[in-house]
Design brief:
The protein is 19% helix and 43% strand. The chain has 190 residues and is of the alpha+beta class. It has a 4-stranded antiparallel β-sheet, with helices on one face. A 3-stranded antiparallel β-sheet has the order 1-6-5, covered by helices on one side. The protein has a 3-stranded antiparallel β-sheet with strand order 2-3-4, covered by helices on one side. A hairpin with a 2-residue loop joins strand 5 and strand 6. It is elongated, with a radius of gyration of 21 Å.
Length: 190
Amino acid sequence: MKTIAAFQEVSFPDNVQVEAKSRSVKLTGPRGTLVKQFKHLYIRIQQIDDKTVRVTKYHANRKGTCVVQTVISHIENMISGVTKGFRYKMRLVHAHFPINVNIENDGTMVEIRNFLGEKVVRRVNMLEGVKIHHSEKVKDELILDGNDIQMVSQSAASISNSVLVKHKDIRKFLDGIYVSEKTSVEEVKS
């Protein structure tokens, strides 16, 4: 059975300005601006007032109603990004050959050397809006910061996938760079 109108609303904090127009949402907050397009979905995004947006799907079946919650989740992640930001911490794991990591181009590119003793130099570019730096407190830790959770998580996945162990038993060769923690850049003051 089809639902005539499935909708949900999301409200915004006072320090976030929102502009919803023709299936695109633009948020401006203390950490910057994020824009996301939802033009590939047949939904209606309307701005009810300055701090509320309604997402509606008409004549929706079960999968169509799930799309509404997905768009709401994307918008809530955007709110977290422009207010707190996203931080991924990655640890360098090695058994014998120490992995050398150099950060180039003002924190927008990573150079990985000596992985499993190989001479190949692996270079991974960070996506737009993502900065990477070494941890000052913990040895062999990288920190990725950004406002867009999709960009930060994809950059972390690209680093992790660049050092996959090939043609060996992965139960024995556990070397690599792994995500150890997912937090926000700015902690919320209670």
